[in-house]
Amino acid sequence: MTTKKVERRIKIKFRIRKNVNGTAERPRLSVFRSNKQIYAQVINDLTGTTLASASSLGMEKMPKQEQAQKVGELVAEKAKAAGVESVVFDRNGYLYHGRVKELADGARKGGLKF
């Protein structure tokens, strides 16, 4: 059983995904955040493959926003190693605020363009 909050996020997610698609030149940087962790993936939607991923699992104890920034830098580093320079940002139905914004800023700081 899903809650109204989750249903609302899923509706927003589908509305965003109508316009945001990852290609080989500009893959999609997708964000998922749970209450404790944050995850990021660089995805090529044409082939359905994940090119790079990072998460806050196993990181040392620090504030969640700092964790999100580190995950952004880490996913940017892995994406650049995979040959990706620019991405399309998919906030996955979350507001562009707080941890999601910190992850995006960390990815920009790591060298990704979006």
UniProtKB/TrEMBL annotation:
GO terms for cellular component: cytosolic large ribosomal subunit. The keyword Ribosomal protein applies. This is Large ribosomal subunit protein uL18. Part of the 50S ribosomal subunit; part of the 5S rRNA/L5/L18/L25 subcomplex. Contacts the 5S and 23S rRNAs. SUPFAM superfamilies: Translational machinery components. GO terms for molecular function: 5S rRNA binding; structural constituent of ribosome. It comes from Segatella copri. Belongs to the universal ribosomal protein uL18 family.
